[in-house]
## 1
Amino acid sequence: MNRRFSEYTTIAEIVTQYPQTRRLLEELGLDYCCGGKTSLQDASQKAGLSCQEVLTKLNEKIDQSDSKESPPKNWMAVPMTELIRHIVDIHHTYLKENLPRLKNLSEKVYRAHMQHHGDMLQKLKQVLETLRIDLEMHLAKEEEILFPLIREMESFANNQGPRPAVHCGTIQNPIQQMEYEHQSAGELLGQMRKITSDYQLPADACRSFQAFYEGLQDLEQDLHEHIHLENNILFPRALQLERQKVS
Ligand SMILES: [Fe+2]
Ligand SMILES: [Fe+2]
């Protein structure tokens, strides 16, 4: 095998250690957020790709970025409080701005194209609306319950605050709930891809139609990165801290 990882390495381990591979994994259709716990071999097989070819491409990407780009931020090495601030400032803000914008755009495009693409746009609009409602509740739960608890745990572990009162028994319970909600958000993104045949624009698409599809693809990419930071980095670190220091 190669020098960096093997076919048994999980996708989460690869993308956590080498975040520059994210875009390539996305292009290859390998799920690195909700499906991060899958081995490279199983994920490649599921995507209908040769594991050896995927390994070669990943190594090429890392070699290129080693020589050209500045190293990406290592989120394993900064306080969790800083990672939480990044998640909220960048990814939660992105969703709060873009979910209402995409809802308006979906209605505009539906009204303009209902004659030829009514069924498809209606389905798409409904899935997007479910995603918007689910995610807005999800963000609130993270910001009001889980993230403050992780911040308190970290302060306690650094002797900078009192022992946190974990009303839910262990932090594992809210984390499992958040992972479950990530899974269903991922499924809704998959449904939107299916409905739009991988965001293939129809020949008569106008500029708004184009902006709508671009916005949905951008949302997908941002949400994948967001879920990766939570599922593969923040949550495992919080669980480890609870096991070591807090309980
Ligand atoms: Fe989040
Ligand atoms: Fe989340």
Note: The two ends are 40 Å apart (CA to CA).
## 2
Amino acid sequence: MRNRTRVPVTGDDLGTFIREIHAEQRHEHVDYAELRLSPRRFLVDGLSLEEFLQIAHATMQPLESPAIRGILLVNRDSTRDFLEQCTAHLDDLPATFVGVDLAGDESRYPDVTAFRDLFTAAKAIGLGVTVHAGEFGDLDGVWRALDELGAQRLGHALAAVRSPSLLKRLRDDKVLVEVSLSSNLMLGAVASVALHPVRVFFDAGIPVSFNTDIPIESRSTLPAELALAARLLGLTTEEVVAVQRGVARFVFRTAER
Ligand SMILES: [Zn+2]
């Protein structure tokens, strides 16, 4: 973000990015995709939050096969002003936005108090709530995502496998763990793919989905993630596809707002 040599991004780039993802997802035979969209870079480069949301909406709305829906990504290092802007925009959030996500450095910003108002308000109007927790952060971060932010889905949640009581909570409350195998490996969240704890979630009866997370960096595709998951879980690719289809009920979809 503070790299002064980087090329500024514009609203056109946002549109292009979404359309490229759509083409890529179509190519991978995906029938519905949720895309985490972070306004931060665009706001730094001069777009207003309103413009960001409208451009993303106008781009996503006509797209079909797959439909693309947005999750508003809020970074843990966000300013109070930005969070207030997000909260203020919730009521008129374009209908293609179906959820909110908290992401960023869990170790430096473990405290989620500042995000409670936004996430509570989002949930109250029917938006889905997902939180990146336990990727590089500790167990407490996963508990906080559930207890303080009301997460219905968790990004990564790797740390959760160290706690039987937390695993029980995820299973009992049917919290979906969004698993991103290649991303975890590439970013070093797990030392090797064989050490990935997806099997623990799966065996504990916790719903899991498979995701590409950072396809631009990892060059991974959804079919590649599903094939990798099949290997780790000792299932056939068809069985993993069935697992993925089975968690379709966790998609945030367009809330009735
Ligand atoms: Zn992620």
Note: Residues 132, 155, 180, 183, 213 surround zinc ion (CB under 6 Å).
## 3
Amino acid sequence: MRRRRVLLVAGGIFVMNLSAVFGSVPRFDNFDGDSLSPMWKVFLDDPRNILIEQTHSRLEVTSTDLSDEVDALVVSNAWSICTSDDFKIKADLYHSAVTNNWSEVYFGVGYRDDPLHYNENYIEIALGCDFHEPGYWYERGAGDVELDTDWIPRYSSDATLYISYDASLDKLYLSSTGYGPQNAWKTVTGVIKGDWNRATVKIGLGGYSEGVPLASGQARLDNFVIDEATLCEVFLPADVNEDCKVDLADFAMIAESWLACNLDPQSACPQ
Ligand SMILES: [Ca+2]
Ligand SMILES: [Ca+2]
């Protein structure tokens, strides 16, 4: 129905001491200051035609009519959410561009296998519009492939979007009314710890446009809150499986590859 590509999430290769930047990871961001918190990293597909900026005490996505299937988003910088425990996160989103082409603002979780390539895995809930019909949009994807999508009409420009996770059931609940299964519009089962096999996930907040000129205030995000979560502040260099702990599981993965050598040519490897 809507061909799109979303660039959600950074890889886990960024080893920096985030706690040195601002103590522990904040549990909320109201985007009110003069500049974006270091808890976020910005990704822009095409800075000439789509931007995400902290201004007017919120995050605003703006774009031109030359934006062509492009994203602008902020992603959790170095920190991530542990999937060993339940989590509850929410954010306020607003989208009022009613046009024939698709544009949206979104909130989601995901990760990227290979930070050098468009190889993202993500689950998002969005406020968007195309064919002059505003709607809520759900999407689960891997790279350029949409694996699962859904859409329902929307009658308000703003909404609080809720993402909650039941770690024991590996169920992710997406909603515009509240946390948990009782509020879920979409329930995604067996993906985060199942298909993805992830001990942590990153958070993404952003916008997307297919040639829709988004003016200041038409597409915006605000008031990100972590109501419940165990956070990983930063991956340690020896944390091979990225579960925020360095233990025997990491050692076992290292031992599996011990003395392996992938140099090309192979003659460069120790003989
Ligand atoms: Ca704000
Ligand atoms: Ca580990």
Note: Residues 30-32, 57-58, 222 surround calcium ion (ligand 1) (CB under 6 Å).
